[in-house]
Amino acid sequence: MKLWGGRFSKAASSSANEFNASIEFDQRLYKQDITGSIAHAKMLAKQGIITKEEALAIESSLLEILDDIEDGKIEFTIEQEDIHMNIESILTEKLGPIGKKLHTARSRNDQVAVDLRLFLKEEVKSQINLLKTLNSTLVNIAKNNKDTVMPGYTHLQRAQPVTFAYYMMAYYQMFKRDISRLEDCNKRMDVLPLGSGALAGTTYDTDRDFLAKELGFEYVSENAMDSVSDRDFAIEFIACCSTTMMHLSRFCEELIIWSSTEFSFVEMDDAYSTGSSIMPQKKNPDMAELIRGKTGRVYGDLVTLLTIMKGLPLAYNKDMQEDKLPVFDASDTLKASISIFTQMISTMKVNSDVMEKAAKSGFMNATDAADYLVSKGLAFRDCHEIIGKIVLYCVNNQKAIEELTLDELKTFSDKFEEDIYDKINIRACIAAKKSKGSTSFESVEEMLKDK
Ligand code: ARG
Fold first, then answer.
1. CATH code given to domain 109-357
2. How far are the Cα atoms of 37, 38, 79, 90, 185 from residue 3, in angstroms, in the given order?
3. Domains in the chain: boundaries
4. Of 71, 123, 346, 349, which is least packed with CB atoms within 10 Å of its CB?
5. Which of 181, 189, 182 is nearest to 230 (CA)?
6. Which band of pLDDT confidence, cut at 50, 70 and 90, is reported for residue 104?
7. Ligand 1 pocket check: which of 18, 114, 196, 318 to mutate, most ligand atoms within 8 Å of Cβ?
8. Residue 35's Cα: distance from chain center in Å?
9. pTM value > 0.85
10. CATH of domain 360-448
11. Which residues contact ligand 1 via a Cβ below 6 A?
């Protein structure tokens, strides 16, 4: 029997039942649903809406149901549509008339909203923990590579030498922002919708502050109509997931390029690589490629939920039942991606000699050579021009700037002296950076301090 069957003279068709039901995916919220219901029952008793004995009976039955679900003893039914009605009907089967009192002063609309918020608050915590582990892995890699010199790129063209530690700490910053974005998102998640009823509040003398305390919410929602129809918090959460996936996909792209034979800057451990079914020599960076691909999927989740919510009139509409699929998918995908990514980079081999060799070609000291002439009193624009001509000369003669003799250099500018060579070797170029947040060894040391 449907919990809402009273008004109906005919049962729903089985195809409509099936189409309408969300139990297949929202059963994942069973724990949050039971937690919310126990708090609700306690509140009803505290306010004298049901008796203390009734609340205790409801609580202990719900805890038994929780155990039964976890032991796989419960079979949910499509007939009961969703997790909320499934649990309520099991409760009523167990308790009889007392079970029927649980839904006093509550609607499935505020119930599902509180369940989803409880769920996402936990997800936010695990995402933050995973990101923290990823960042400490980056710090470890950086600490082991303070002296690993490599090319820094713009337009994927060799630009200026940097250290691998510095490179890793750039990603550290992105993930640090991701953590703070999640923390921020959590503030708006931390608002209790329960007690809003269907849309207009309830006629009972409830205590929503008590509910908030019981369920660990910092705030109580201020407008019932908004609190049952708001899914901003879920959209924001998927936006956070999308941004982190975007960061991971950039990092993955680098790792894919770096592990190609052309680069050979890094090598993924066998345990995180795959082979080819036809080409025996292949070792493919599938994990990185998959994370890059899954990024598209998480963006899709974000657009899915935004589109579900687009144009919905207030308050609750059944469209919103579709919110759970993208939320679960985005969260699961992100968790899996961060954790495999962390394992992958903590086991990858860094080919520092190859990186250093690459850093020595491509005229990456050209800016430093120009800066040298500035220090001898020339204007930067003129120096840029002079060094540009030197580079062209080097390209035509297949030489590096530091391979030119002083006489050769002097044909471009008489400001060149013997000390130029010390200024343009790769480590000197790195060490000479003075601005806050630069790649200099000192600055990277600062970034790694207390980490
Ligand atoms: N299964 C529904 C959902 O996930 C629960 C809320 C249903 N409310 C309603 N008035 N039909 O959105």
1. 1.20.200.10
2. 16, 19, 10, 11, 35
3. 15-104, 109-357, 360-448
4. 71
5. 189
6. very high
7. 318
8. 26
9. yes
10. 1.10.40.30
11. 22, 26, 82, 84, 108-109, 112, 316, 318, 320-321
